[in-house]
Here is the input.
Amino acid sequence: MNDSEMHTAKRRDKPVKTIAVASGKGGVGKSNIVANLAIALSKLNNKVMVFDADLGLHNIDILLNLKPKFNISHLLLGNLTLKEILIEGPAGIKILPASDGVQEMTSLDEFQRLNLIEAFDDVADDVDILLVDTAAGISDNVAFFCTAAQQIIIVCSPEPTSIMDAYGLIKVLSSNYQEMKFQVLVNSARSEHDAKNVFKNLSAVTARFLSISLDYLGYIPFDEAVRKAVMTQKPFVLAFPESKAAEKINELAKIISSQSEINVKGTVQIFIRRLLNAVQKVPL
Here is the structure.
């Protein structure tokens, strides 16, 4: 192996954090957290890619007032390369827009699977952290995106229904897919005390019925700045940098950036291979 080949091999073996962000129900602000977290991580000198995996809804581009011409379906059909599909968002984050339907992801032929792996191989050197914004709820699509990732963040709100739906998602992922480690982020909490109570209640029910590891990741406070930012299609971390929500999202980014010791070392290609293995198990 010559020097160039050794450099390429070393480059492609670099650790890439792949984090799936999921929620048991809609309306908890998951996609907004992903968008702002991506920007906060990028500001810490991470190369961040967001995979909008909420197939059919594509919330990330709407939140950031972006208008992508193409999406992942154009890659799967072999019409465009991944680099041609990726769009750039605030702070230099890269976004892979969602397709308009689930069928493309659950019926890939061998050529499309290889094409997807090679496509990510081309951009792997430009990714430190891959954030996967899954659909809300419990579905096969949510499951295979979560099982492909190295870390799973469950977002919930203080509402009792949100807590129970988060438990339902964790139960499905642990019982049916043998996922045992989860991190919980509480959104729209009135105080840290309230957020920890949410986590305490969720921990109590999971400890009673499931054998899993559940960690408290933090919380994003209820903040009027968040609503104002959403209405203007701007990230609150940039539109209102002095807000309490921005302060907490920046703290969260620092925590995630320092969590390398808990991640399984791997490449973005490993995520894609895990994803494709999971896709093949999903009933059409």
